[in-house]
Amino acid sequence: MNSVLENARYIDLFAGIGGFHQAMNSFGGKCVFVSEWDKHASEVYFLNYGIRPAGDITQILETDIPEHDVLCAGFPCQAFSVSGKQKGFEDTRGTLFFDIVRIAKHHRPKLMLLENVRNFTRHNEGKTLKVVLTTLKEIGYNVYFKVLNASDYGLPQNRERIYFVCFRKDIGIDYFDFPQPAIKATSLHDVLENNPVKAKIVDRPDIVFTRNYSPDKDFNDEVLFPNRPIQIGYVNKGGQGERIYSPFGHAITLSAYGGGVGSKTGLYLVNGIVRKLSTRECARLQGFPDNFIIDISDSQAYKQFGNSVAISVLKSILNEVSKIKTQKIVLDNKPINLSKVTKIAELRH
Ligand SMILES: C[S@@+](CC[C@H](N)C(=O)[O-])C[C@H]1O[C@@H](n2cnc3c(N)ncnc32)[C@H](O)[C@@H]1O
Fold this sequence. Notes:
By secondary structure, the protein is α/β, with parallel strands linked by helices. Helices cover 23% and strands 17% of the residues.
């Protein structure tokens, strides 16, 4: 019995600073190829993992990419535009999703893990999602997808993303259960630094508090298990990046772009001071370990963490994948008539 993750060689496309790398390596994966065209993110990738990413994926021939078992890609949504009628695979030409597809068609990885923004389901009135699902099916994959919130998987950050888990059809995995939410109260407080030197403080006369919130004073169910952002005030007009939250709830979604005095992280009232989050706090909010080397440029680092995948969610998904055992070792690129797949829990009995 073996799992598709056993000794898995994987490729990391649209790699950013390696959220997929962190998760795959924690399951024994070996990274054999990386693509990322942003020079700052690439440098951070190299400093942390010793691999220099290849650049623009559209310029890389699939034949120049090594064989692999798992394809990982947190592909950018904004570059995905589907025009014309829904013609499945043909419609994806000219998009970055097409690059994933052409690589998968050539290498036939056993598993593909894809991630995108929550709104992906609604993009182009749902046609984009339909084309993605049809295309992946056409090239021979069973596809499972779900919107999951990092807040429900051990990270104190409200971050809803769509995750796709795609098994090559011939390995016979024709079901997948996404992980159940963790029943655990967490708060931003858990990941705050004691004395962050790099967290911008906001000291302005136009700060307005709308709610006095601390776990001791405001004792109710929400406090016991908030697991969501709790807004307690605002600055200026309270637009994006201008809202103030309690550290006893969760952080808002880290974002690569966006303005306001609390841009990219939001504002939090910590020990009587209104401030942004430090880049290390952002790293922790995405599940990066404390030995992760962060970009020396704060603005690049905020962008990178805003773009990154939530590592704990991926780990929870991979944990479910690892429980599924195929009955035979699947040989690369050779169609095998494999039928029976059983969950390890069932196999134990
Ligand atoms: C949503 S982010 C993915 C971040 C990554 N999952 C992580 O954990 O850090 C998308 C990344 O794709 C990169 N990208 C966009 N177009 C690209 C291309 N044509 N070739 C290579 N990388 C590209 C961007 O620079 C960005 O870092």
